[in-house]
Design goal:
Blueprint lengths: L2 H13 L1 H10 L4 E4 L6 H6 L3 E4 L8 H6 L6 H12 L5 E8 L2 H13 L5 E5 L7 H22 L5 H21 L6 H11 L4 H8 L12 E7 L6 H8 L2 E7 L17 H10 L13 H13 L3 E7 L3 H17 L3 E6 L7 H15 L3
């Protein structure tokens, strides 16, 4: 497969995962959806399913309006709409972690709005940096393993799980290599999203065909910080204003990818340690300000000159997180802007004004 064919296939996975996965189910390939990067994809894959990140459903409509207030994030409202209207009818089950308040309550709404869908809950500890948190997570993963075995109709062995752990470790290594290839914002972040929307074996085959691009001269380097950003149009919008993403802290990109799972020892314990040991998300207790420190370190190491906060509108945890991060950036003399995202995505005049202002500040060396 040539580079262009692989890139086009990657884009198609992101543009319309539903048609592909529905066709695969017709051929006997089953999928399980998951709502958050704290859900161990290795466990789903080892049970015989394709792990599918729930990224975006249809625009919120009647079902979302009946069950959720309009000030709930459109990301969650879109997923509820898609589960109720049949968009996700190819899924055998969904795994819903208890992270933010909206997703926590969404698990109950799904059982009412889409009663045919099997819902499996995963309690993720709010405190992630203690041995007790790891022990708790191991117990939760053991319960999830039993649920997946019930849906699959077969037992999930440690050998199966270690095989999936090794496969996803290879994927994470490949993602780290892609950052050095100058693929451009659009294709790089399509690769991140595609890994969350298709089988890892297929994804590795596509990645192996990608070729390094050329660095764009004069591009302003920025970091992007936020939660889930499944809309590739965001990265196109940044390029309109001469910005290239040098580093990110997004749960659909670099917060999803880093950190290998130990391939020896007890696999559930290794999974718990890896998933709890990553950079914390705003739903987790962070008394040592790891998010602030990692952001400043990431921005500095990447050579980013400014920061774009890309946050789902009405996301309480990221909104609570923003003032502290913004204050730290101001103290370091790093300019930043905030974009509030909704689904369907439309670049607003306010977004363009803010990006234009940031672009001008970076051009002036502020």
């Amino acid at each position: 497969m040539k580079h262009r064919e692989a890139a086009d296939a990657m884009m198609e996975i992101v543009r319309d995962p539903h048609t592909r996965l529905r066709a695969k189910r017709g051929e006997g390939g089953e999928s399980v959806g998951y709502f958050c990067s704290y859900v161990p994809v290795e466990l789903i894959h080892a049970a015989g399913f394709t792990p599918v990140r729930m990224l975006l459903g249809p625009p919120p409509g009647d079902t979302a309006g009946s069950f959720m207030q309009p000030f709930c994030c459109s990301f969650a409202r879109s997923l509820l709409e898609g589960l109720a209207d049949g968009t996700y009818d190819y899924l055998s089950a969904v795994v819903m972690p208890h992270t933010c308040d909206t997703i926590r309550n969404l698990s109950d709404l799904v059982e009412t709005a889409a009663p045919a869908m099997r819902v499996m809950r995963l309690m993720v500890p709010t405190v992630t940096h203690t041995p007790e948190a790891v022990d708790f997570m191991v117990e939760e993963l053991a319960a999830l393993k039993l649920g997946l075995e019930e849906v699959a109709g077969s037992e999930l062995s440690d050998w199966d799980l270690r095989k999936s752990i090794g496969l996803y470790n290879r994927c994470r290594s490949a993602l780290a290599g892609l950052r050095e290839m100058n693929l451009g914002n659009h294709l790089l972040y399509a690769a991140y999203l595609a890994l969350q929307l298709t089988a890892p074996e297929e994804w590795l085959g596509l990645v192996s065909a990608l070729e390094a691009g050329e660095e764009k001269a004069g591009t302003k380097r920025v970091a992007v910080v936020g939660g889930p950003v499944p809309q590739l149009e965001i990265f196109d919008l940044l390029e309109e204003y001469g910005m290239s993403v040098a580093w990110d802290d997004l749960c659909t990109a670099s917060r999803f990818a880093p950190g290998m799972v130990a391939e020896n020892g007890k696999p559930l314990h290794a999974l718990a340690e890896r998933y709890l040991g990553r950079r914390p998300c705003p739903t987790k207790l962070d008394p040592a300000n790891q998010r602030e420190d990692s952001m400043i370190k990431g921005v500095g190491a990447s050579g980013a000159e400014g920061v774009v906060f890309a946050q789902q509108a009405f996301c309480e945890f990221h909104s609570f997180d923003y003032p502290g991060l913004k204050k730290r950036l101001d103290a370091e003399g790093i300019p930043s802007v905030r974009l509030d995202l909704e689904h369907p995505f439309q670049p607003t005049g306010q977004m363009r004004t803010r990006l234009q202002a940031l672009s001008e500040m970076l051009s002036e060396g502020m």
